[in-house]
Amino acid sequence: MTTGSAKHEIRLNINGVDHDVIVDARRTLVDAVRDKCGMTGTHIGCEHGVCGACTILIDDEPVRSCLMFAVQAQGRKIRTVEGLAIDGEYSPLQQAFHDHHALQCGFCTPGMLMLSTWLVERGTPVDDEELREVVASNLCRCTGYQNILKAVRSVLDGDKP
Amino acid sequence: MKPAPFEYTQALSWQDAVAHLSEHGDDAKVLAGGQTLVPAMNFRLARPSVLIDLNTIENADHITSANGELRIGALARHVQFETPPCEGPLGLLIPRISRHIAHAPIRMRGTFAGSLAHADPASEWCALSATLDATIIAEGPGGEREIDARDFFVSILTTALDAAEVIREIRLPVLEADWHCGFREFSRRAGDFALALAVACVRLHDGLIEEARIGIGGVCAVPFRSAEAEAALIGQPPTSELFKRAGEAAAETIDAMNDHHANASYRRDLVRALVPRALSDAALPASVP
Amino acid sequence: MSVIGARVKRLEDRELLLGEGRFAADYTFEDQLYMRVVRSPVAHGVLGEIEIDEALALEGVIAVWTGRDIAHLPPIDFRLTKIQDLPLCRQHVLVQDKVRYVGDPIAVVIADDPYVAEDGAELVFAHIEELPPILDATASPGEFVPGVSTEPAVVEKSYGDLDAAFAGAAHVFECEFEVGRHTGVALETRGANVLYNADSDRLEFFGAAKVPHFNRLAIAGMLGLEPEQIHLFEGHVGGGFGVRGELYPEDVLCCYAALELKRPVKWIEDRMENLMAANHSREQVYRLRAAVDETGYILAVDNEFFTSQGAYVRTHGATVSDLSAAMLPGPYMVPAYRAKGRVRLTNKTPCGTYRAPGRYESTFARERLVDVIAHRMGIDPVEMRRRNLIPPELMPYSRGIANHGTPLVYDSGDYAKLLDRLMDYIGYDDLRAELAARRAQGELVGLGLGYFVEKSGLGPYDDVRVEIAGDGRIEVITGVASIGQGVETVIAQICAETLGVDYQTIRVTHGQTDRIERGMGAFASRVTVMTGSATADAAGQLRTRLIETTSERLQLPSENLTIVDGWIRPIGETEGPSMSVGDAAAAYLDDHGGQVVSVEATFEATHMTYPYGIHLAIACVDRETAGIELERIVVAYDIGRSVNPTLVEGQIAGGMAQGIGGALYEEFLYTEDGQPICATFADYLWPTAQEVPDIESIVTEDAPSRTNPLGIKGAGECGINASGAAIASAVGQAIGDPGAITRLPISPLRLNEILNRSL
Questions:
Q1: Residue A1: what pLDDT?
Q2: Between residues 618 and 657 of chain C, which touch chain B (CB distance below 8 Å)?
Q3: Cβ B109–A66 below 8 Å, yes or no?
Q4: Looking at the structure, do residues A52 and A15 belong to the same domain, yes or no?
């Protein structure tokens, strides 16, 4: 058998649903989520961990899924953008992004949503400096970040829509 | 940019990890945070035929202080250093450094030990380890080995670890209350690799600097303590003039690296600027402006 | 309430927020194959044998093709500005003879898995006899092809009496300015998924963008197909910026592969490929001479400039050089002008347009020149601009030269008024004094500005079809494309306003070549102007038709009827006889037959329209580290008429972020051998949220467009145009040497050298 051809049967728990897939060791988590589980909401922007487009939550913490192999994610709680809305109703962050025009092409949006979901769920106070630092984890080419910061701030502050 | 094929195996203990490494030698790599290794694998610059996952080793992420030492487990992640890991000046210094490392999601996965094993010249933890003369505990086929920081960093991206060795723990001296510490780095964008960085730890006695540790990173192939800067400081009262002289002394003799972000001359200028600033940040009492 | 001008929320957002977008990589079909391009590892060389046997032997690899296999395909032709010897510089989809840049496609590997395709590509080995690369666009031209100079075209424009102006000038200034190579770099890399539909005998191309109709005809021509045999479909597009959507070798190869193998072929480039193989832009050197009178009034500008075109001339032809030449004078009178734009081939990635092409660069050069003149003559930089601005009474102002194939006529503009508004907004006199006081305290802080004229609404036409079904559903089918800018919302707003319905009941279709015969696509900030105008026209006709039908049914005179919120009723009345637009449509269909009531309209434009604006920046410099911090950015912009102010501000903010990138961070550098140094995000640096301050925008409507009934000018490129100029200006003032910054990006390394020199 040639190196690396071993197949691993793994179970990925994504947004509360188990997906049983067969992957080779080198299949990245983002590719497994997209291609094996059919959830293409998580995007690939660079495959070297800089742009954050592939950001998902693993055990409620933000992770660059292009820098993990699918075999590492067995038994972990994976959350992607597809799991944010409930019965088609936006999460507060999704609503805020829409209200504040925080997306244009939408390619960075899933990563930004997952990153800011972590920040909001963390529940600790976030000043403007820290907010900007966190949002700076992910790249956006369309919006200039301004409205993304406004959208996340509005949810952190519990603004009524 | 998909990685080349490899076999994946999970280590359940350090002995396990070492056994795998011994078997496969240069063909194997260990995986901890993956924030540096996996990009390299995606670029196919790193092509291990066997990947040994260390994340499955239990109780490897401790950060504890005992006997005047801060002991850092191999799987301790950068994010764990965002709150003071111990009492005293070291405990205050460490969170000031960790927030400069990349970005939050990378800090969730990347490890202190991983930074050391990778030995990027611009690594903050490598510079801190060099400044404080850390001890690196390596586990290999022959058992445990203690490596001093000054022997550990051999060259760019090269350490004294053997092919079948893996870092198990790092030990830093817990600094006493009369130490004062500061840190500064300069990068093009927040979170980028530093073009230069300075760690300044200074101990005062009767208003004079009795001991000094000035660490420089990002500038040469390995991080190092600047003997020239330290000599300029010893026995002197802390003033901003003195800090400037220390910066000059540090910058003068450096054989700095050249790349398209910064040439040697600019790196020296940065050292000249950052050393005094790190010293000022150390908030020494009675610093005369 | 008017919906044109309202800050309505976007119709596009839902799928994108839910993670249900359909970007090129999101399509996967049954029997899917994957294409990987093998690229030249050297910058210049003669291509010899290519060994493919090892790749072919790899399990999962279906095919490997080299230049020989597709030698019958013609090179990719131009979409724009095809002049002089440019046709000799076109690119074949796979190298035929010589490789000319690192990244030049030399083979393709088709496999059943993208990982395997990459494994296969690694096993392809090409023998290349290396040649010395040409990297400097200003050096004497050489040859890539025997007999064809690496200066295949020179763009020339002129007006006025240049010699007389220089002879009579009180002062002559000579300056050289340079903009570094960088480009749009969208977050989504390029890609396509092409399938062959056996039932309809046609290729279906998913992942199209920007100019799907043009590309369809071009691909059909290249592959020997009838246009009906290929259709392009645009899903979601992760940013374009001028770079995505042009016809690239990979698009054609994907189609070719799908046709040959009769299986769907998917190609998604990775980031390294994107940074090496998608169009680069911006690399230009300007050598300017200005003749100036005693008062600082510019009498003439002589502009010789060099555009580093890269290894081939792609679909844009000489567009960038043409725009640079035409737009350099900007908002100033400059009564005499000569431009000589040298198109120079270099062994680097081929170049094309990038947001405000030719304008980011020429504005930088022109505004730096103005600052230098002001400084040397002791004139306040704002006053200097005032003295040179074209006054409003001269509008429409013709320069007597061509711009992008149209006569250059500034249709409307009150440049002085916008400057007044900006100065008022920021409290210029107090601000200037405050910054001077800070400098006196030893701070390196400065204010800079750049005045620019933009161009938009490029024709020559756009078609639109507005349809309404019997149940009231409205669709606007356009020939444009979406790159994420909000096309669907803006067109819906215009249609809604004209038709009298809620904009949320309107669906806007774009980028589907099988829904509308022809289309010009999305570039040159043309969509709101062109498609918007055609939509207003068609919607107006549809409105008339619905009112007439209602008039007949309800026995009320048409002239008394109007449509409000989707109801056709007598003007001013809220109760009484009425018909919904849906019922009116159904009634019309009863009378005339058909499934939908359909109206087509075409809007034509022979001239572009010219919005204008000013970028203002305040920058702080750290003397010791040469670090630059942007303290404040203000944009003043006259848009003629704003359809959705929120979207306009979004375009400004996004463009400015890119402009900051080009001013301070982004550059493609090469080694002496022509190896790209900045081929990953570790070295090609985009601004993050930490590097982009909140942008303050003042958007005015003082100068509506004269080229379209709605008075609209575009907004796609106004955020980026003068950002390099303004930032350079601010940094120059901060370090006390306004003329010092002559090159972008202002990297800390370069700034440090300037600071050390001036000590």
A1: 43
A2: 622, 624-627
A3: no
A4: yes
